[in-house]
């Protein structure tokens, strides 16, 4: 079926063709159609197309759905295809669509994409990627394999909200590139054999209210950078109000000119709760508990204040040449029953606390 523009197709089943299954022209629409076991891509569209509740399964040598520029995809499924499940040109809108168990990537969207409620699972390549300037809301990638760079990998200047990457075999669960914001996202139980890996990778971006949980690594040499929670490998990131727990490497690792504020890190078995390897960072108001090291600063020229630490060995490991507020260990209290009691921690309101 080839290249019909300005047309509407409904309730078709297109199977076992020697080339493309359905080839739709510009401004064409397809609803409730099935394209299965075609040799080429199962469904291909031109510009301004609209696909609703379509299924593309088992392309022999191609992708499931290949969407043209400025097109819309709603409630579609692309499974068991030879290449990518769903691939799009720029400026497409995808919602409530799923790509699973494809032999290549799950979903690959172009620049300026808008993805809402999309899922990529059990693909043999990366789970979900999109180009610069894209928006991702309530999207998920899980159980994708193949040792990909990242399970969810948007370009620069993207917005990610409530997205989840879990149980993937990938170097990174979620990437936040320069100019991007990730809010309320979760990276958990991801693993990789690479010498550096993490739940989140970020540089020049903002992470708020995110969770990195139980990210691990299968590399034979376990270090603080194998299976980190959040890894900032560049400058100028804000990491705020995030929770990093039971990751194999560092909970949060930053290089330079970053603000790490109000985070909770615990249970980093081979690393620090917060690890600073460069200069000009502000490490403020974090709680670090039961990590291999609490707060570790390896370089000079950083500001460290208002943090609390307990059960790390040691709680603070900071080289000379930084600005570090007084580290105080308050005495324990007697019984309190009423409106008095307790111990003055310090006259310095910026103190770092051990408890």
What can you tell me about this protein's structure?
This protein has 355 residues and is an all-beta fold. It contains no helices and 46 strands. The strands form 3 sheets. Strands 3-6-9-12-15-18-21-24-27-30-33-36-39-42-46-45 form a 16-stranded parallel β-sheet, with no helix packed on it. The chain has a 15-stranded parallel β-sheet with strand order 1-4-7-10-13-16-19-22-25-28-31-34-37-40-43, with no helix packed on it. It has a 15-stranded parallel β-sheet with strand order 2-5-8-11-14-17-20-23-26-29-32-35-38-41-44, with no helix packed on it. The chain is elongated and about 80 Å long. The N and C termini lie far apart (71 Å). The model has no long low-confidence stretch (mean pLDDT 96).
Features:
355 residues, mainly beta, 15-stranded parallel beta sheet, 16-stranded parallel beta sheet
**Strand segment tally:** 46
- What percentage of amino acids are in beta strands? 35-45%
Helix content: under 10%
| CA-atom Rg in angstroms | 24 Å
Mean pLDDT: 96
Largest sheet: 16 strands, parallel
Any idea what the shape is? elongated
Parts with pLDDT < 50 across at least 5 consecutive residues: none
Distance between the termini: 71 Å
Quickly describe the structure.
The chain has no helices and 46 strands. The protein is mainly beta.
Draw up the topology in text.
Layout lengths: L1 E3 L3 E3 L2 E3 L6 E3 L4 E3 L2 E3 L6 E3 L4 E3 L2 E3 L7 E3 L4 E3 L2 E3 L6 E3 L4 E3 L2 E3 L6 E2 L5 E3 L2 E3 L6 E3 L4 E3 L2 E3 L5 E7 L4 E3 L2 E3 L3 E7 L4 E3 L2 E3 L9 E5 L3 E3 L2 E3 L14 E5 L5 E3 L2 E3 L6 E3 L4 E3 L2 E3 L5 E5 L5 E3 L2 E3 L3 E5 L5 E3 L2 E3 L5 E3 L4 E2 L2 E2 L23 E3 L1
Parallel strand pairs: 1-4, 2-5, 3-6, 4-7, 5-8, 6-9, 7-10, 8-11, 9-12, 10-13, 11-14, 12-15, 13-16, 14-17, 15-18, 16-19, 17-20, 18-21, 19-22, 20-23, 21-24, 22-25, 23-26, 24-27, 25-28, 26-29, 27-30, 28-31, 29-32, 30-33, 31-34, 32-35, 33-36, 34-37, 35-38, 36-39, 37-40, 38-41, 39-42, 40-43, ...
């Amino acid at each position: 079926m080839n290249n019909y523009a300005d047309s509407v197709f409904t309730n078709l089943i297109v199977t076992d063709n020697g080339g493309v299954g359905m080839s739709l022209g510009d401004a064409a629409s397809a609803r409730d159609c099935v394209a299965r076991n075609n040799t080429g891509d199962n469904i291909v569209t031109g510009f301004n197309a609209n696909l609703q509740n379509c299924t593309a399964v088992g392309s022999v040598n191609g992708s499931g759905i290949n969407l043209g520029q400025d097109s819309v995809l709603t409630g579609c499924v692309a499974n068991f295809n030879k290449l990518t499940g769903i691939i799009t040109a720029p400026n497409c809108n995808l919602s409530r669509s799923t790509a699973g168990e494809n032999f290549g990537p799950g979903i690959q969207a172009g620049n300026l994409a808008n993805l809402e409620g999309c899922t990529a699972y059990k693909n043999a390549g990366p789970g979900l990627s999109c180009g610069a300037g894209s928006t991702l809301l309530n999207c998920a990638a899980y159980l994708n394999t193949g040792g990909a760079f990242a399970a969810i990998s948007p370009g620069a200047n993207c917005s990610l909200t409530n997205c989840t990457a879990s149980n993937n075999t990938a170097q990174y669960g979620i990437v936040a590139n320069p100019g991007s914001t990730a809010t309320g996202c979760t990276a958990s139980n991801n693993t990789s054999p690479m010498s550096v890996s993490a739940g989140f990778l970020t540089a020049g971006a903002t992470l708020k209210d995110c969770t990195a949980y139980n990210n691990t690594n299968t590399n034979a040499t376990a270090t603080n950078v194998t299976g980190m929670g959040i890894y900032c490998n560049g400058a100028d990131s804000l990491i705020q109000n995030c929770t990093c727990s039971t990751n194999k490497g560092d909970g949060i690792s930053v290089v330079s000119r970053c603000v790490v504020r109000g985070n909770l890190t615990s249970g980093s078995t081979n690393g620090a709760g917060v690890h600073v390897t460069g200069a000009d960072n502000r490490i403020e108001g974090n709680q670090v508990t039961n990590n291999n090291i609490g707060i570790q600063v390896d370089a000079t020229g950083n500001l460290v204040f208002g943090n609390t630490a307990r059960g790390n060995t040691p709680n603070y490991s900071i080289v000379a040449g930084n600005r570090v507020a007084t580290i105080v260990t308050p005495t324990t209290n007697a019984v309190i029953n009423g409106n008095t009691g307790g111990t003055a921690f310090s006259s310095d309101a910026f103190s770092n606390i051990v408890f």
